[in-house]
Amino acid sequence: MWKVIVRRILLMVPQLFILSILVFLFAKMMPGDPFTGLIGAKTDLHQLVALRRAAGLDDPWWKQYIRWIGNALHGNLGMSYNLHMPVTTVIGQRAINTFWLSLLSVIMTYLFAIPMSISAAKNESKWQDKLWLTYNSITFGIPPYVVYLLMIVIFGFTLKWFPTGGTVSPNAVGFFPVLISRIYHMILPAFSMAILGTTGIFTYFRSGILDEETQDYVKTARAKGVKEKFIFTRHILRNASLPVAAYLGFVITGLLSGAIFAETIFGYPGLGYLFIQSITGRDYSMITALILLNGFLGLLGALLSDIIMAIVDPRIRIE
């Protein structure tokens, strides 16, 4: 298993190399540059030309790419044109916020989806099943930003139960007050992401339970008089959880890289919010680094899913 994991990791190198070229080219194809926003009535155009030349933006794209990839291999992803800080420093600061938000969202998602799936499967075609099927159909069809805006209006501005931006209250001092404040700021965006993220898990888990209940080994166990509770918990749930366990890898990496709408609307300073700011500010260095990170997380998600599957069911071997 470890040899396969190492081989898969090594395979990521050429994949990320090709992705880096595409990302760099697409970033250069964007209209304008990081200094375009500085143009005004009193702007010295000669100074802007000097800034572009100093930043190397007038060089051919391949020279810029070689310079960028060479620095990246040494851990230097460049400077953020907008924030005037090293890209690695900014991403490191924002990644911590996104990680904790994603972790809380994953926990909430599974806490919602698993009982929901079990309830629907054990009451197939009854009102419980129809209720959860309808709920997931609705949440799947609603654009996420609509739900996020409603959550802010209802729980942020109207009821004033939760903050509508930031990560920590200014008056929080000390480890535990800061920790509580950080969790308090994450509850609303994490809950909003969780109630929209149950569809995939619900579909896989409900279908898996229903399929396992029709298997011969389940019929044999029932014929032998094995208790229904034992059959359900030790056999049906275990086998039905395999697709859900595999899905976990993509859920984790998807939340780390896909919380753009949530972080932007809730004003949560994570990687998603940073990505939107970088695009609007034409921050080439930050855009290329974030998209490359997103591609790496996608490859990591596939590997994590295979590893989780192998752990849950030792009969499965990743290749």
In short:
Helix content is 75%, strand content 0%. With 319 residues, it is mainly alpha-helical. 27% of the residues are buried.
CATH topology (fold) name of the largest domain: MetI-like fold
Give the overall average pLDDT: 79
Q: Whole-Å distance between the termini?
A: 8 Å
The residue fraction in helices comes out at: over 70%
CATH class of the largest domain: Mainly Alpha
What is the second-level CATH architecture of the largest domain? Orthogonal Bundle
CATH superfamily of the largest domain: MetI-like
Main pleated sheet: none
Helix/strand-derived category reads mainly alpha
- Give the CA-based shape: globular
How many separate helices?
A: 13
What order do the SSEs take from the amino end to the carboxyl end, as H and E? HHHHHHHHHHHHH
Percent strand equals under 5%
Overall tally of structural domains: 2
Low-confidence stretches: none
Strand tally: 0
The radius of gyration is 24 Å
Folded structure, characterized:
With 319 residues, this protein is mainly α. The longest helix is centred in the N-terminal third of the chain and has 36 residues. The chain has two domains: 58 residues, no CATH class; 226 residues, Orthogonal Bundle (MetI-like fold). The chain starts with a helix and ends in a 7-residue tail after the last helix. Helix 4 crosses helix 7, helix 6 crosses helix 7 and helix 8 packs antiparallel against helix 10. The protein is 75% helix and 0% strand.
